[in-house]
Amino acid sequence: MVLLVSQASAHSDDPGFVGGFVSGFTHPFYGWDHVLAMVAVGLWGAFLGSPAIWLLPVVFPLIMALGGVLGIFGVPLPGVETGIAASSVVLGLLIALAQRSPLWIAVVIVGSFAIFHGYAHGAELPSANSPLTYSVGFVLATGLLHLFGIGFGLVAGLPGGTFALRTAGFAIALAGLSILFGFW
Known about the structure:
This protein is mostly helical.
């Protein structure tokens, strides 16, 4: 019987394999689409000021979890990859153009994109080693990326900071376009 046992998959090289907390925590840092969008949420929140500075980064993971549930249950959602790439383009442009949307519009925009990000990862959770710990790691990493965006966004209050913030928004939008059209 020992000779018939297959290799253990404790350290799988399969890129589709999803592990526990560490896998969930590191995953957002390896996808530029996620990094760009999460930093942009924090940047735009910082640009909009209170209460958006804390509300947008809270709304995103909450709605992302809803999208994740839709993905887990296989509810059809068309254009997921396009929605994810478009999140960087739209959020980047909102920052670059110094768009001061009313809070409810900002929440709707951020929440709409959160559904796509959550759906994509929820669809891969059923194969996870530990879906709960993967999700916790993923949400914590998402929060850290939001905090990075907020920290960078706070430079807008410094002399010359608005230019840096708008330039970052423009760079995020360009990177999002390159992802959207398959150049990256």
